[in-house]
Every structure is written in structure tokens, then in C-alpha cells.
Amino acid sequence: MEARSPELKTELSHRLRRIEGQVRGVQRMVDEDRDCPEILQQMTAIRSATHQASLLLARAYAARCLDERTMGDRAEALDTLIATLSKLE
What we know:
The chain is an all-alpha fold.
């Protein structure tokens, strides 16, 4: 992940810290024997938050990847991009 913008790095770091806090909260819930539906709800929120963080990074990657390539390199870049994005699910 080279050449990220400072804004992207800040936003991604903020999201990851929030996710880290959510995970710690779920660990506390497990330690406290909280009800499964409550824990599952929080885990769903974590999954959503990690997906959104992935999309943020993927968008930036796509923009940079396609912007920096010449026309001849774009087909290869697009294949790489699609392969990377397919791993998000």
C-alpha cells in the first residue's frame, strides 16, 4: 500500500481504532456471559465496519491503480483490481 493520501490514512486509522474498540467490547460481553443476540448484534456491526473500511481502501486503491497506469497497463491493472476486490466478500 504505497502512496496513500494523508486523509485516507487518517480516516482508515480512525475506523480501525473504532473497530478495535468494538472488538474489545464484544470480548467483555463474552466474559460477562451476555446474551447471544446482543453479542451477535455487535459482531454484525463489526463486520459492517470492517467491510466499510475495506471499501474505503479499495476505492482509493482503484483510483490510484487506474490513474497511474498507461492505457497498455490498464487491462492488467483492471484484472489485478478485480481479483483484489473479489476477496472483499
